[in-house]
Amino acid sequence: MTNQPRLRLESGTEAAWMLSGPSADKYPLVNEYLAYLTDRNYSPRTVRAYGYDLLAFCRWLETHSSDLDSVTTGTVLDFMRHCREASIAGRPANVLSMTGKRLDHYSATTINHRLAALTGLFTFRALREPELRNPIPSGREARRVSAEERNGLLGHLVRPKRRSALRLREPRRLPRPLDRRETADLLASLRTWRDRSIAGLMLLSGLRSGEILTLDVTDIDIGARWIRVFGKGAKERRVPLDVEVAGLIQTYLLTERPESTSTRLFLVAKARTADSR
């Protein structure tokens, strides 16, 4: 019989994910916060990601015989230092990146994600108990948007982001958008109208793969060039449809889409088997 950890993350009933194990009773605030995220219609995968970040923090508190009520700014700084120095199990210590950094340590992005989970947790506590001090100091409320982000393909969606004073600096790797010719060459390299339509929606409308696969035929208004999209947490939004992508979708509907009772926009025609010939 294997030994179960004293603190672990499991799928729950009141929340998509929750802490469990013999030590879970010491951290009721975490489960209340995860339930709060579920009530706010956060995606189960988002709740899971926040749950694992908070699980790492609570396990670290366990090793220091501490609890959430005694957390101070110094405690958070100690945890961040632990994350920077800790080695990831299963990764060899002698493997380096192209810049010479060890790959068995947590990245700044991972540490900042954990910090964001802690910020949300203690902000949630402050909503319920305003007299308690938030151990996460707030920095500048917003940052300026760079020219690359303003002029990108989805620059109209860019909003200033909140930043904590404890946040680690991350390397800025801004993607270079394809120009019109490169986009046309990419779409032309695909073999079917279905694939061209999907690639066009990703490139020119910024849709995620999961959002594209759940599109219904009625979600596309080719004449008005609008798309009704249901994103994370079933949040509905309207996205403009590029005129060329609208033509690709119309051609797909007229020439390739198989007859079906399904309302989904993109279907795959089943190949004929040897028995059906």
Question: How does the SSE layout of this entry go?
Answer:
Blueprint: E1 8-11, E2 17-20, H1 28-39, H2 44-63, H3 73-85, H4 108-128, H5 147-150, H6 180-189, H7 193-205, H8 209-213, E3 220-221, E4 226-230, E5 236-240, H9 243-255
Antiparallel strand pairs: 1-2, 3-4, 4-5
Helix pairs in contact: 1-2, 2-4, 6-7, 7-9
CATH topology of the largest domain: DNA polymerase, domain 1
Number of domains: 2
- The span between the termini is 54 Å
Counted by DSSP, the helix tally is: 9
Amount of beta strand: 5-15%
Low-confidence segments, ≥5 residues, pLDDT <50? Answer: 272-277
Explain briefly what this protein structure is.
It is built from 9 helices and 5 strands.
Tell me what the structure shows:
The protein has 277 residues and is mainly α. It has 2 domains: 8-157, Tyrosine recombinase, N-terminal domain (DNA polymerase, domain 1, Orthogonal Bundle); 180-268, hpI Integrase, Chain A. Helix content is 40%, strand content 7%. The chain has 9 helices and 5 strands. It has helices at 28-39, 44-63, 73-85, 108-128, 147-150, 180-189, 193-205, 209-213, 243-255, and strands at 8-11, 17-20, 220-221, 226-230, 236-240. 21% of the residues are buried.
